[in-house]
Amino acid sequence: MEIFIYTKYFILSPKKSEEEFLKVVDLKSLNTFHRWERTQEYKNLLLLLLESKVANDFDEIYRVVTDKAKEGDEKSIRLFLSMQKDIQSNAKLAAQTFTSVEDEEDSEDDDLDLS
């Protein structure tokens, strides 16, 4: 977790040289970061970041397509209808995910006596 915080700091801060960054994180080389970048944890975090970016891009594209479809552009109308089907399908999957999580939470018995 500490490495992630440092990486986030490095990414969000104004550009720093490698030497400046190493001084901030109190390390002599980037080897620790290079090793971490080969771990499954890093790959999972990277996939979450990319998934977030795709969702933001999808939202922007959806707005553009919707606007053009409202203007009567036939290709945009077809694309809009196709996107709607995909959105509905993904919404059903999301609803199932949330339902299964709620079911798991309801089935947990913590033996807590509230009387």
Overview of this protein structure:
This protein has 115 residues and is mostly helical. It is built from five helices and no strands. α4 crosses α5 (74-107). The protein is flat, with a radius of gyration of 23 Å. The protein starts with a helix and ends in an 8-residue tail after the last helix.
What proportion of the residues is helical, as a percent range?
over 70%
- In round numbers, the mean pLDDT is 82
Work out the number of β strands: 0
What's the helix-strand series?
Answer: HHHHH
Distance between the termini: 40 Å
Please work out how many helical segments DSSP would assign: 5
Rg over CA atoms: 23 Å
Question: What's the quick description here?
Answer:
This protein has 115 residues and is mainly alpha-helical. The chain has 5 helices and no strands.
Q: Which short descriptors sum up this protein?
A:
single chain, 115 residues, 5 helices
Itemize the secondary structure elements and their pairings:
Elements (H helix, E strand, L loop, with lengths): L1 H11 L5 H8 L5 H6 L3 H31 L3 H34 L8
Helix pairs in contact: 4-5
